[in-house]
């Protein structure tokens, strides 16, 4: 046993509060340690070369690096010793930075603790066994969850790269939030005009299989080999027969159905196609509002449908697709107005949200693009926009900024002036966030060319007076309370995560934060990957962002998948559990406790039934190891003996 | 005196900020000056400085300006600001604390308001409960505004809505004792 | 039926300028079976003036009364005046959260307070402890011409952390209580706008101006009566209504009644016992238009059903 110990100064990060020389000195005294040294920046190229040189020179067969957290550089140093000819699992890292030097500044105590920790690592490494990865096939098909602009971009890039794509969209049509917009900032491009062709590409691409009005039911498997169960929800219309003619929607007598596409600003029919450019352009019945499905009366759509596509008895259908990677692009949701009781909490018809106003502005929206007050249909003269409704508001639990509201408020104010030249718009804001290309200029244009009056201050209350709304705000730059008599008020309500984001995350086994947004591997360097291998993120499901950022992430996620699939075989992680069949008594407790379903029963040639670990599914959590009554199953690289060796080293002080 | 030029290095009193923070239990630096408090404050039209400005003056450590202001005396602690502050600051508590400190350090920009409060408390100390007619008459006398609310006199008297004589509770010395004990303790212990 | 006994802390104003509140509450408590007992020798809570001098003083003045009530062995004290309620509740909460404060307060008062009392406003008791069906049952009269706006005032539900009752922005307890008694309640955007509070004597103009906004909005929404639950609100709007009219050149003639008086009237209690004659702006027309209710046990206003077109 010849152990090499390399203690990193990490500049001043470690050496500032730990006496690294003393630690090295103490380590040299331990039997089995052939060489111990310190180095300024061990992870640097010369630092790594030092290790390789030392291994050769001193004939080392085990290496301990005492430095930062293994989450930083364990992989780095494993590759280093592999280059020197050692099995990479003969490396142990002792965390003397995040766990010691960054925690306290008592030099004596820190050094003492570092000595203990490195000694424990030495004891462990001496008990390490060489481990070898195995290879497994990769299914070069990718699942994209979410058909908004991020998901569509990801799907198109993957498909153009030669992969087969399965695209699952929860609502009736792809397009997401962007399909609802009228124009986009800062160019005032017509949103559906630029999105429509992309939607058609998705529909017509031979490599993309689209499941609309479907949700993810279950995900089994592991990277390269997922089995995904998709629930095709019942639309009560046979989409193979439906031509999208829209006759059913015209004649349906149930006229007060909630229109999800228009965010409730106007009702729709129980059977509907959400918007003219919908893809797929097929009808769907909302069972909550359909007279036939709720009361057994009516049946008009079935009678008039020219292709007899209506099927009231349709049920949900489950389908299984096999894929090798998953891109999550499920987008975002918006905070409800009931959270703003001081603005009416939804009781005042002329206090609406930004997206609802967008639908009013949109030519294919419920008012055919004419700006009309929801209460009486009159054209407003004074429109007030209120920024940060819910965003940056700790009292509502949303401390973050929603990213694009400042921009869309400027856009909507500009469009309002275009539509209604005699109108006057006001914007109550706290700050203007306009970081992108041409963004700040765009917000200035609203004020300089379109006469939009920006007032710096929040609004405390909105109340009705006659048929107007009194907006009581503040102008903090003037230092006064400022009131505006408005005809229409538009609230920039906060971006929040989807209500079922957590449920989906749990199916995919990815992390989500307190706000329900999915967590990326590294906030700076790995924005589209998750800590779950094989699952990638794109778009607003990871955090509020605008269209260019979502599109970028869609392409980025696709590139990650394409590089993942550039090999035919992937390497498995050997730090998984392993059952010793000679010790296993076949109680199968481990099978029952494994949360990943990674252990199965196997019959040996002599007829005995023992447990067997499916290496590629095992996530290395170790629950089986603690469950097994006879110690037959051990998590490799973290076996009982290895861990006990560490404990002994600490307790005995040797 | 409001001024358009200040030397922040010299005029900012950070021990004052700390004192206000400690006594009110609020962190003044949480305020991002959104103006929501001013927007909702019903008394803004009567203040010399709107409440968000008082908060900004506090952040800037402008002790003199704040303690000489009328706003801190005119605040009714109606709690509108506290209810709506997005940073969850109890703004009304800060205003009250500023008023407490102003009284303690003898900055009284609204003498009549202090006089009224003191007259009320004197009545309490004396009788254990407030003798409303007595408070009104004493206040009128002390303030020199002899006919304050005189028009209400006949209205309340004719309807028997006011006692002509005070009620003395049995435990009034106990109430008086609370005041005495409170005044006895050195200020910095409180 | 509520068999619980409550302590009842009337506070100084209910004994004098807000006597109608005291009388009417006691009358409706009798009808609804709410048993109350007043603490012997209670003292003034200090209201607004005490907390402007020092929070410690304010807390002590409140805590003295809490300890008296604790000695009575009763768990809940009804404090009809929102200011008294706020003082008692804040004293209780402060002493609960801060043991050091509790010690200091207990040193100032004669008997220590051990956190065993829960202060509540009268509105809270009627909303939380009396089932609406009971109120409907007792409402044997109706006043069809009456259109009431519920004016809660600024502190009975605010701040949320102290009041722990109803909603700070759009409270509905008074609305529901009056509705279950068959009274027409209009939606009112100014439910919690401040009337001017305790500045009536010193800054009459301020109070008159702010109170006039409340009355204006009441008129705007078509109300002919304002229901209140706070003595100061009632005085600022009723006693000072003539002052408001002369300052603001308006001609309001809107009666301002305590919600308990309105309940008392529909319960059939005599107007004199409810202190109706103590109101400055006359409520005689309300008394005159009382008629026997056609349906006993009127239900609470139901939500309109979702419409369906032909």
Short description:
The complex is a heterotrimer of chains A (654), B (190) and C (310). Helices cover 28% and strands 23% of the residues of chain A.
Strand content of chain C: 5-15%
Rough outline of chain C: globular
Query: In the residues of chain A, how many domains can be counted?
Result: 4
Question: Oligomer, anyone?
Answer: heterotrimer
Give the strand order of the largest sheet of chain C, numbering strands 1, 2, ... along the chain.
2-1-3-4
Order of H and E elements of chain C: EHHEHHEHHEHHEEHHEHEHHEHHE
User: What is the CATH class name of the largest domain in chain C?
Assistant: Alpha Beta
Assign a percent range to the helix content of chain A.
25-40%
Question: Structural class, judged by helices and strands of chain C?
Answer: alpha/beta
Mean pLDDT of chain C: 91
Mean of all residue-level pLDDT scores of chain A: 95
CATH class category name of the largest domain in chain A? Alpha Beta
Low-confidence stretches of chain A: none
| Poorly predicted tracts of residues of chain C | 297-310
Largest sheet of chain A: 5 strands, parallel
CATH architectural type of the largest domain in chain A: 3-Layer(bba) Sandwich
Q: Quick one: how many beta strands of chain A?
A: 32
What's the number of helices of chain C?
A: 15
Structure classification of chain A: alpha/beta
Question: Would you write up a description of this structure?
Answer:
- The complex is a heterotrimer of chains A (654), B (190) and C (310).
- Chain A is an alpha/beta fold.
- Chain A has four domains: 129 residues, Rossmann fold (3-Layer(aba) Sandwich), CATH 3.40.50; 178 residues, 3-Layer(bba) Sandwich (FAD/NAD(P)-binding domain); 164 residues, 3-Layer(bba) Sandwich (FAD/NAD(P)-binding domain); 60 residues, Alpha-Beta Plaits (2-Layer Sandwich).
- Chain A has 18 helices and 32 strands.
- Chain A is globular, with a radius of gyration of 31 Å.
- Chain B contains twelve helices and no strands.
- Chain B is elongated.
- Chain C is globular and about 55 Å long.
- In chain C, helix 7 packs across helix 10, helix 11 crosses helix 13 and helix 12 crosses helix 13.
- Chain C has two domains: 119 residues, Glutathione S-transferase Yfyf (Class Pi), Chain A, domain 2 (Up-down Bundle), CATH 1.20.1050.140; 156 residues, Rossmann fold, CATH 3.40.50.
- Chain C has a four-stranded parallel β-sheet with strand order 2-1-3-4. In chain C, strands 7-6-8-9 form a four-stranded parallel β-sheet, with helices on both faces. A two-stranded antiparallel sheet of chain C has the order 5-10.
- Chain C has 310 residues and is α/β, with parallel strands linked by helices.
- Chains B and C meet through helix 7, helix 8, helix 9, helix 10 and helix 11 of B and helix 1, helix 3, helix 4 and helix 11 of C.
